[in-house]
């Protein structure tokens, strides 16, 4: 009986590890080349909800508008909807820099749209360690 108790205790301690590990693998697998969003939740700016961080880091459309070459500058509209996602111009005025926008101060989900009227310049640029994150061109 003593042995059984020790084994059960051991399994009880082990169970959380056993069950959390495949979940992490599943997230990595479902994000694929987008990569998993990795943020230190104790380093988040004020106002960012740590429970509302997007799962995958990179933008599904990538680092280019569908109408532009890879990360070309955007001098036209201040905001737009491309490939179903909002982008906006950012950085210094006239620099042509732009970003994909994201909820939750840039840490949340990429903002979807069907027309550019659903996008605005108050939206935050997507933040994180990913090729389509941030403001550039
Ligand atoms: C997260 O940030 C805090 C505060 O800067 C730091 O003390 C901690 O080591 C960081 N954790 C990781 C896993 O990087």
UniProtKB/TrEMBL annotation:
Residues 1-20 form the signal peptide. Keywords: Signal. This is IDI-2. It comes from Podospora fimiseda.
